[in-house]
Amino acid sequence: MRLVFAGTPAAAVPTLRRLAAEHEVVAVVTRPDAPLGRKRILTPSPVAQEADALGIGVIKAARLDEEATGRIAALRPELGVIVAYGGLVREPLLSTPEHGWINLHFSLLPAWRGAAPVQRALIAGDAELGATVFQLVPALDAGDVHAMRVFPVAEDATADDALASLADDGAGLTAEAIAAIADGTARPAPQQGEPTHAAKLDLSDGLLEWTEPADGVFARYRGVTSEPGAHTTIDGAALKIRELARAQDADPLPPGELRGAKGGVLVGTGTRPLLLVRVQPAGKPAMAAADWYRGLRVPDGASVRLGAAEAPNAGRAAR
How many domains does the chain have? Predict the structure, then answer.
């Protein structure tokens, strides 16, 4: 088929690569170059870089406006495929390809319609993750389903890990859906169940509340890693949590209280402790949590508590 592909992040690259090997991708639509790194250097999106490597023409557009619509229509695509482009497809572009547009979405629709389905599913503690290929319609992620599949994800996988896994598996699912459209056997079906919404994350979503149960704290850490990132405070200063793990056979600790342990630093929660493995103090590079904790020079008998401004001795111990 003659396809136009729209996508932006790394999670969209496996699908582009798969479709380019099986079909004629006449153009790739992606977001404009964005400033990255400390020097804020304008950098093409991962999808733009892959399209360039594949020799496919790229349309960079912040919005799929009249100009973008005209450029796409001139290529006479039979089907549009979108994976995490980061913008809405509206009429008349929605109806421009003969078979419309299909979307690979990283959730089991209608669960987690919206911008951050994997992250919100992990934060909510969902037992299953998956991907859905559906027909794009004007309403958000509400179209009929071409293909859906539950994919296994490790129980300690972060959002980055889960997205990488789902991106690889979703490429095959999308290819199967397109094959059915091409040979006329596609029978998309309405979504079943109560929709939930996956709003885009912001920095506040990464704040870990140590008074919550350990499972809830760990679920939030998984869902916000690496973006926007898990964080807490110590003595009023920010502390990023780069790696957190479940602790084995640890005695209870008050919420937020720290104790040195093998392989890291135990931190108390509303139930059982978790294990800090890597942290990043404000203004410093990421480091092993055990090294960071030794640097606090906690006096004998004193305690240090994360995320609690009123914690006794926290100021003295942290300096």
Answer: 2
Residues of the chain above pLDDT 70, percent: 96
Strand pairing category for 197-198 and 113-114: parallel
Please compute Rg for the chain using Cα positions.
23
Eight-state DSSP code of residue 207: B
Domain that holds residue 230: 203-318
Same domain flag for 185 and 209: no
- Mean pLDDT score, 11-25: 98
How far is it, in rounded angstroms, from Cα 72 to Cα 63? 13
pTM above 0.85, yes or no: yes
Q: Is 220 helix (H, G, I), strand (E, B) or coil?
A: helix
Give DSSP secondary structure letters for 163-204: HHHHHHHHHHHHHHHHHHHHHT----B---S---EEPPP-GG
Looking at the fold, whether 167 and 301 belong to one and the same domain comes out as no
